[in-house]
Task: inverse folding
């Protein structure tokens, strides 16, 4: 397979492949590892710390080849490299040295041996502090973990932290996420994937599990189901498009709001909702932005592209026509500013931010109602759309609002979620390499022609590169919407969808239960700070038959927990749900076939908000975070995890930029060091909500940080 790279040319760490016979090393390890239970030269354990779980942590015991017992030479790719035992040690006689002498693909790892005698045993649900002493001459150095799944064997888990260049022995300590279910052992080490030299020594691993607080919830059903509240005021606009802004406000865009009379009168609407006080600011709207595309730019402004040039003609001479115009909305002024036009009209276009901050827009309908096949590229540094010949062109029609998710290697994954269409070229799933201008089909998505207004999400954490696609229907044939979900692991060399758990069944108007395979389209799925996915809303048929159902999906177990509280407001066509900075979920919109629009706003409080006190981020010295750096926060309670969540920019069950980026922690009392990934494809530049989650599972109110 080709090595994954980011837009700046840096290779991305990848599951390793051993370089030498594991059988010989296993035999050696099994003979002597028990005799080496206590090794010389170990650092003094802090008072109260658990025992070091690393075998041969100081690298002092060598096998018959002269390499440290319980460690292996591993990696992959074409770079020139060498492994050696160095006597420039942090303590004792030995350290491990890896050198990459020539640029190429892949990486090399100082990694623990994947063997039952050497790999540390772990307990699901526990967390562990990992530390090592190191020197490195390249910034392309990361701590990497693998885990042993009792069913799947050894699998990549995550990269924990990027290690800065240092010529002096430096200790790095990182706390793992909670160990997933069905995991009995882990191995970890330090990876180098750029030209340079890495020295490592004195590894340590201790159980750092915090005692879980006693749960005492007295809120009744809210403890397990959460609660909905319908606001005592309505939205002043038809909330077809929703964008959470860097200040916590919400941009609500209607344009003509699917109302031909408003279009004829040039009555185009936008409002900014202020959740902090329940008020709205009306915004002058320069064009019909109904069914436009939108995405936050790295500076927090919102790029809005395309929209509605005209409604279908009464005589059938043309259908919906797309606008070429494009605007930038600035939350500092609550005003739109026009930028240059796109190369083609776009009604229902996608919008995905790349790792370099540029925007790619695909699909939609053009000015003549035909499918737009141009790849439209917004160069953020130049603040303009590139000309047709300046961008790579595949001339592929991707359908309407195709869900295009940025992968960790810089390619785009078309999930198969879209709007409208029956057997169109844009249905199915594929991987688009913009740089190489190639499209690779992806198999396994069931009922690919019944994925109208399904929803796809990059599951938490983004580092795992797993996508879940949920529900869907077909507005042309209009069968019952289905309950199918499909899951894909984008880290695989040739990823394919596999069947996921079925969406829970809901009830229809009047409390009539769904039966058999009945499910829903118009699905909304929201990434929550506790790492779960809340799915809500939907309808059984095109613009009809709302489905009242909500559930929690747990990526760690690949299961839905049904029976969450349901939104009392129907949420079908032109509805959205999205995360607010206080950890609640806001839902807007419903536009059934009779042309009405429900202007009510609902807000969901997840169960975690009924289960104890929130932690608070009491200090955060730095809000500007560069890739591969560590940043300190202070909290007022023990913390289980912390993460960045990108604010929503959602319409028509499509928010391909939604992502949850795990922040591995270094914990010293209430001072928490947070380690940001070095890969901008995992966290494209821009403003993110930073949440700290307490050991009771309750998140803090978010703080805003700028990445990149």
Result:
């Amino acid at each position: 397979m080709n090595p994954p790279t980011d837009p700046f040319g840096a290779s991305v760490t990848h599951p390793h492949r051993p370089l030498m016979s594991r059988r010989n090393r296993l035999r050696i390890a099994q003979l002597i590892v028990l005799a080496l239970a206590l090794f010389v030269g170990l650092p003094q354990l802090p008072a109260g710390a658990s025992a070091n779980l690393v075998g041969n942590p100081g690298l002092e015991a060598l096998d018959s080849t002269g390499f440290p017992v319980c460690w292996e030479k591993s990696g992959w790719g074409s770079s020139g490299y060498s492994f050696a035992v160095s006597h420039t040690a942090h303590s004792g006689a030995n350290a491990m040295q890896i050198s990459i002498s020539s640029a190429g693909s892949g990486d090399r790892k100082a990694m623990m041996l994947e063997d039952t005698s050497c790999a540390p045993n772990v307990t699901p649900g526990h967390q562990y502090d990992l530390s090592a002493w190191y020197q490195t001459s390249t910034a392309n150095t990361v701590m990497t973990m693998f885990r042993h799944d009792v069913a799947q064997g050894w699998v990549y888990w995550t990269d924990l932290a990027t290690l800065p260049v240092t010529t002096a022995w430096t200790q790095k300590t990182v706390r793992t996420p909670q160990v997933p279910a069905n995991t009995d052992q882990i191995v970890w080490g330090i990876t180098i994937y750029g030209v340079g030299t890495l020295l490592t020594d004195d590894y340590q691993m201790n159980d750092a599990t915090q005692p879980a607080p006693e749960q005492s919830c007295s809120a009744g059903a809210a403890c397990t189901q959460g609660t909905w509240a319908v606001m005592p005021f309505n939205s002043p606009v038809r909330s077809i498009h929703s964008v959470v802004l860097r200040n916590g406000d919400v941009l609500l865009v209607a344009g003509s709001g699917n109302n031909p009379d408003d279009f004829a009168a040039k009555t185009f609407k936008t409002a900014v909702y202020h959740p902090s006080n329940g008020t709205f600011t009306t915004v002058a709207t320069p064009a019909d932005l109904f069914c436009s595309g939108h995405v936050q730019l790295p500076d927090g402004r919102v790029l809005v592209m395309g929209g509605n040039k005209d409604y279908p003609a009464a005589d059938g001479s043309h259908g919906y026509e797309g606008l070429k115009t494009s605007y930038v909305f600035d939350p500092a002024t609550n005003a739109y500013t026009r930028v240059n036009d796109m190369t083609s009209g776009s009604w229902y276009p996608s919008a995905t931010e790349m790792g370099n901050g540029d925007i790619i827009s695909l699909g939609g309908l053009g000015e003549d109602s035909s499918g737009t096949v141009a790849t439209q590229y917004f160069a953020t540094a130049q603040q303009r759309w590139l000309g047709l010949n300046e961008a790579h062109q595949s001339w592929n029609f991707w359908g309407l609002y195709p869900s295009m998710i940025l992968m960790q290697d810089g390619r785009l994954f078309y999930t198969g979620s879209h709007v409208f269409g029956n057997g169109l070229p844009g249905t199915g799933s594929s991987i688009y390499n913009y740089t190489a201008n190639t499209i690779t089909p992806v198999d396994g998505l069931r009922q690919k022609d019944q994925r109208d207004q399904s929803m796809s999400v990059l599951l938490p954490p983004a580092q795992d590169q797993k996508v879940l696609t949920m529900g869907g229907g077909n507005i042309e044939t209009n069968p019952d919407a289905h309950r199918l979900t499909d899951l894909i692991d984008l880290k695989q060399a040739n990823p394919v969808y596999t069947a996921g758990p079925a969406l829970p069944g809901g009830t229809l108007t009047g409390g009539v239960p769904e039966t058999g395979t009945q499910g829903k389209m118009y699905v909304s799925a929201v990434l929550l700070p506790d790492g779960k996915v809340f799915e809500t809303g939907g309808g059984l048929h095109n613009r009809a038959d709302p489905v009242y159902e909500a559930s929690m999906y747990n990526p760690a177990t690949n299961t839905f927990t049904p029976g969450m509280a349901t939104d009392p407001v129907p949420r079908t066509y032109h509805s959205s749900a999205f995360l607010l900075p206080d950890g609640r979920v806001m839902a807007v919109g419903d536009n059934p076939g009779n042309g009405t629009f429900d202007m009510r706003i609902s807000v969901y409080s997840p169960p975690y908000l009924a289960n104890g006190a929130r932690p608070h981020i009491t200090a955060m010295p730095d809000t500007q975070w560069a890739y591969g750096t560590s940043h300190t926060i202070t909290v007022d309670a023990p913390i289980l995890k912390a993460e960045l969540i990108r604010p929503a920019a959602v319409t028509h069950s499509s928010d391909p930029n939604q992502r949850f980026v795990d922040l591995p922690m270094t914990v010293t009392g209430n001072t928490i060091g947070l380690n940001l990934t070095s890969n901008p494809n995992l966290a494209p530049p821009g403003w993110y909500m930073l949440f700290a989650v307490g050991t009771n599972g309750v998140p803090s109110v978010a703080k805003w940080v700028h990445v990149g």
DSSP finds three helices and 53 strands in the chain. The longest strand covers residues 196-207. Residues 1-48 have pLDDT under 50 and may be disordered. The longest helix spans residues 22-32.
